Amino acid sequence: MSALKRLKRLINEKGYSYLFKKVLTKIFNIFFEKHKLVLQERDLSQKVNIEPPRLSSTIRVVSKDNLDFYESLKRTMLISGDYENGCIRDRLAKGDLCYIAEENNETMAHIWVSVEDQYIPEVDMIMHIKDGEGYLYNGYVLPEYRGNRLWPAIGSNILSDFQERGFAKMSTTAYTWNIPSIKASMRIGLIEKKYLILYKFLSFFRYHVEKEFSTTQ
Questions:
Q1: Do the Cβ atoms of 213 and 173 come closer than 8 Å?
Q2: How far apart are CA 193 and CA 211, in angstroms?
C-alpha cells in the first residue's frame, strides 16, 4: 500500500482531527522534551538481606586502592556506553566505588556508588548527598547475563557494606520507563519516593519539577 493510500485510509478511519493532533504532536516533540526519573530510597536502619544471583559470580569492589579489575570494568562500561576517557579513575579519585559481579576475570555487571554530590545528566540537576548517605548510579548488566538477578546481588552487597560502615540511607534514580531497573531496586528495599522531572524547550529553557510519588499517578 502506497503512503498516499495509507494516509487516505487513516483519514477515513480516524478523521482529520486525529491526523491534525498527530502532526501537532510531532512538531511539538521536535522543540519540547520531557525527562522523568523516579527517585528510590532505603533506610539502612533495618537488616539488609543479601540477594543471591542465579549464576556463579563473585562480588568485588573496584576502588582507587584496588584496580585489579580495572580493564574488565572498562570493557563493560564501553559496551554500556557510559565510558569516557579517564572517567573510571576520575570517579575513583573522588571517592566513588564500583561494585562488580565477575567470573573468570569477566565483569558481568556493575553498579557505581557515590557519597558526594552527584550530577544527574538526564534531568540536568545535582543530587545533594548528605553525610551518612550514598547514591547508586550507572548500574549495568551485560545483555547476555540479564535475568540472573545480578543487579540485586550487587546492590544488596552495597547496602550491607554501607550499613556496616554506619550509613543511614541509600538512594538511586531511574527513568520511569525503565521498569526492570526500578523492580531490581525495589527487590533490595529501595522504595519510590518522588519524581524528578525536566521540561526542556529547544536548548535554552529548562524547568525542573519534583513531585512526591503516588500510586495513583
A1: no
A2: 9
What per-residue confidence (pLDDT) applies to 2?
Answer: 67
Instruction: With H, G, I as helix, E, B as strand and everything else as coil, classify residue 48.
Output: coil
pLDDT at 78: 96
Asked if the structure places residue 22 within a domain, the reply is no
Q: Is residue 96 part of a domain?
A: yes
**Three cell numbers, residue 74:** 572498562
- Packing angle, helices 179-187 and 150-164, rounded to 10: 40
Q: What is the rounded (10 degree) CA torsion for 43, 99, 156, 217?
A: 60
Distance of CA 154 to CAs 70, 86, 188, 199, Å? 17, 24, 10, 33
Quote the percentage of the chain above a pLDDT of 70: 86
Residue type, 180: P
Does residue 12 form part of some domain? no
For residue 63, give the C-alpha cell. 576502588
- Say how far apart CA 92 and CA 132 lie, in whole Å: 19
Domain CATH for 98: 3.40.630.30
Identify whether the C-beta of residue 212 lies closer than 8 Å to the C-beta of residue 194.
Answer: yes
Total structural domains within the chain: 1
Give me the domain span that covers residue 89: 32-212
- Residues found in the chain: 217
Over residues 192-200, the mean pLDDT reads 90
Could you tell me if residue 7 is inside a domain? no
pLDDT band, very low/low/confident/very high, at 212 (cuts 50, 70, 90): confident
**C-alpha cell read off for 111:** 553498579
